[in-house]
Amino acid sequence: MHHPDFAPLKLFITGPTYIRDEVKQAALLPEFGHRDAENIKRFAPIIANLKALAGLPDDTDYQVLIYNGSGSMAMESSIRSLVAMDDVVLNVSVGAFGDLYHKMAVVNGKKAQQLRFEPGRAMDMTVLEQRLRETSPQVVTITHNETSTGVTNDITAACGLIRAHGALPLVDGVSIFGGAPSEISEARPTMYCTSTQKSLGLPAGFGIAFIGPDAVAKAEKVEFRGHSSDILGQLGRASKAQTLTTPNCTLANQMFVQLDHIVHREGVQNRFDRHIRMRNRVHGWVDALDGFELFAQSGHRSPALTAVRCPQGMTPKDLKALKETMRSKGYLFDPGYGKLNDALAAEGQAAVFRIGHMGDITPEMLETYLHDLQHALLGR
Ligand SMILES: *Cc1c(COP(=O)(O)O)cnc(C)c1O
Hints:
Elements (H helix, E strand, L loop, with lengths): L9 E2 L9 H5 L11 H18 L8 E6 L2 H12 L5 E6 L2 H12 L3 E6 L8 H11 L3 E5 L1 E2 L4 E2 L2 H10 L3 E5 L11 H4 L3 E5 L10 E6 L1 H7 L11 H8 L10 H18 L1 H20 L5 E2 L10 E5 L6 H13 L2 E2 L5 H9 L5 E5 L6 H16 L2
Parallel strand pairs: 1-13, 3-4, 3-5, 5-8, 8-9
Antiparallel strand pairs: 2-10, 6-7, 9-10, 11-12, 12-14
Helix pairs in contact: 2-10, 5-6, 10-11, 11-14
The structure holds pyridoxal-5'-phosphate (PLP).
């Protein structure tokens, strides 16, 4: 379908992402009643496939929640349901989305402390351990994949450390879930949050959470969990494969089709391998470009997106101009995370742009994009 005013851009940003035609077509499946027998036909397979994609066994003690909203809704719900008013929550941040989790704790009136690492660096476990010893928090939030910098954290190591200090780990897995192993089985977080519009290759509209067995006992002791942010209320409905509030039925139909594709046609391991191949290809492309370098710390580079440091002298303004050049070639280019580039510019450092290679982007699409981007970069 076309509209004369809407440009059919290929999205290489870090979410929302490119949507396959089959997923677009799935929006035409019949609408349904969310308290009717038709509901479970969509949501039972959706939940089973989310567990398979998360690497959880059929008899897992994790429960899956689907919220109307987005990844933020799941994250805010984790704060409201699992952090008591007299708890201390330590929010560990390696960038803008770690800062967002901290903000959610602050604006919900929780006693929040923050541990921040330099942009481009991953969490340092020695520093984290020191801080856990000093602060003795009841709850700790961490980011699996920091979308502003392209850094992936070792959440299995971090969750182990957090548990060893008697705290509950909450994980923001928004941009990576569906593109790499969730590590939920190994890391055993109290709650793991994600959303539809990043590595799952769906439109935005649902927050998704994996709720660990220790979350229920904790939530029972937390007051004022809200209504739609209450994991206990949500779990009540989820036990019947229903959502607490009226779901976006169009997105549910699309999610049914997309998760079936991922688990039963593409294959989970093939999907993860494809993300690694695309990441490696982008790394090779950056290495061959004079003056450009990878921004994220070696060993912690994301399979879902790559942040690229420009040569000295290239400014956020240049990247915005590049974005318009790429638009004229039919792409939506990502000129970097605004606040990060402002902070880098203030320190006299070169700007960073990002390449989203998540979800259903194929190596062939990426190849064409890199070719066109290289021309636009060198011709500037
Ligand atoms: C996009 C993103 C969010 C916010 O998710 P929404 O779905 O936009 O609410 C949170 N954390 C990370 C790491 C993200 O990439």
